[in-house]
């Protein structure tokens, strides 16, 4: 889970946890990293290019699976789908 704190006016903000610390990415993380639109990221999810799951209606993408796909071109089919 990614949790962000509201910055105070006199301090430098730092998130409690970032995508780098997490074992999962969000759709927004992929949009930012790949410079893709939301519909394009959802299309990748539907193609099962890497492992993902839903938590309370929000997609979470396995960091290890995504990075393997991105770096090696390895496709891991999502066994749940």
Short summary:
The protein is of the alpha+beta class.
* Alpha plus pi helix count: 3
Proportion of residues in helical segments: 25-40%
Chain oligomer state: single chain
Strand order of the largest sheet: 1-3-2
Describe the structure.
The chain is of the alpha+beta class and 81 residues long. The protein has 3 helices and 3 strands; from the N terminus they run E-H-H-E-E-H. Strands 1-3-2 form a 3-stranded antiparallel sheet. A hairpin with a 2-residue loop joins strand 2 (52-55) and strand 3 (58-62).
Topology:
Elements: E1 24-25, H1 27-34, H2 38-46, E2 52-55, E3 58-62, H3 63-72
Antiparallel strand pairs: 1-3, 2-3
Spell out the key features of this protein.
81 residues; alpha+beta; globular
